[in-house]
Structure formats: structure tokens, C-alpha cells
Amino acid sequence: MMLKVSDVKQFLYCPRVVYFTYVMPVHRKVTRKMEYGKEEHLEIERLERRRGFRSYDLSEGERRYRTKLCSERLGVEGVLDMHIVCGSGCFPVEFKNTSRHPGLNHKYQLVCYAMLLEEQYGKPVRHGFLYLIPGKRVHVVEITPNARTFVRKTLDQIKMMIARESFPPAPRRPARCFECEYRNYCADVV
């Protein structure tokens, strides 16, 4: 079974999203926030094409957008927003529409993409970037051995949840449920 890289992000935010995707597929309501996020991604990609690399603390490189990545070994695939290839290596970049500090779910999604890039290029990826759209800030994420292990364990947990068809508990932060597209299917939360 192939998972999506975004499943790592979703599972760490709320495992029920992944449950409703694979175990009990239901109609997913497209929210205004989701539509806005797509528009923002297109706009930031347009702007990135005109920019230098100073934000990433690089002197040169080549940007590659919406790269399809896949690892049979990890059992995961996804489309990375952007990555930069230069003489010192390659660096994944994910665009995030958040004005807060990036969440752990964002970090581990990026780590998963870094692992896929390592397979594609056959070179280690030491760090990547989360580009925070509202503040136009770049957040550096170190790709550590512990982070890679955490991603592998998360992928295993997702596969186990799907295989056992076990309904996961609600997230500890009920505020996450207010704008969730699956809110109507969780009868035990707000």
C-alpha cells in the first residue's frame, strides 16, 4: 500500500483525517481555507521564479517545482512544492500558509520529502525549508537521524491503523476540529 506524504502531516495533526481517507472513505468537503491555500501556492510559486536564493542562505541553485517523488522502500509518494538543487546538495521546500510557528506535522512532512529526495538523488539531505507565506519567512528544518526514524515509525503507525481499521482518538486540541472538512463525521467532538 502506498501512502501519501501528506498523510504524515495529517496523521500528526489528527489521525482521524487519515482514517476517513483510507478506512472509511467519506465525501470530503472542500473548505474555503483549502481553496485559498491552493491560490496562495500558485502565487508564491510565481514569485519564487523571480527571486534569488538569499532567503535560503544559498548563493545559487535551480528551483524545481511540484516534483513527483516516490519510494517503494518506504511505501510513500507525494508532490513536493519546490526543491532547490545546487553544488552543495538539494533542499526540499514546502510552502505553508500559517502565521504561527510551523507545527511538528509540517516539520515531519518536510522530513519525509527529504527522505524521498535522498532516494531520488542518491545524496543525503541535511536540511530543508518551510516557507511561511503570510510573513514571507523561511524556517530551516534540520533533517536528523532521529527525525527520519520518527517518520518511519509514523508511516508504520498509519499502516497499522489502516490494517486494523481502528478508529483513532480525537486530537487533544479541539480547536483543530472547527475548520476540519471531516468534522461532521466525528460525532464525539465539537
UniProtKB/TrEMBL annotation:
Enzyme Commission no: 3.1.12.1
Signal peptide (UniProt feature, chain positions): none
Cytoplasm in keyword set: no
Gene Ontology molecular function terms on file: exonuclease activity; iron-sulfur cluster binding; metal ion binding
Domain of life: Bacteria
Gene3D superfamilies membership: 3.90.320.10
Bilayer-crossing regions: none
GO biological process: defense response to virus
Sorted UniProt keywords: Antiviral defense, Exonuclease, Hydrolase, Iron, Iron-sulfur, Manganese, Metal-binding, Nuclease
Cofactor: [4Fe-4S] cluster; iron-sulfur cluster; Mg(2+); Mn(2+)
Residue runs in coiled coils: none
Record's keyword annotation contains Cell membrane: no
Residues annotated as domain DUF83: 5-187
Pfam families, sorted: Cas_Cas4 (PF01930)
InterPro entries associated with the record: Cas4_exonuclease (IPR051827), CRISPR-assoc_prot_Cas4 (IPR013343), Dna2/Cas4_DUF83 (IPR022765), PDDEXK-like_dom_sf (IPR011604)
Cofactor binding note of this UniProt entry: Mg(2+) or Mn(2+) required for ssDNA cleavage activity.
Family stated for the protein in its record: Belongs to the CRISPR-associated exonuclease Cas4 family.
Function: CRISPR (clustered regularly interspaced short palindromic repeat) is an adaptive immune system that provides protection against mobile genetic elements (viruses, transposable elements and conjugative plasmids). CRISPR clusters contain sequences complementary to antecedent mobile elements and target invading nucleic acids. CRISPR clusters are transcribed and processed into CRISPR RNA (crRNA).
The protein's name in its UniProt record: CRISPR-associated exonuclease Cas4
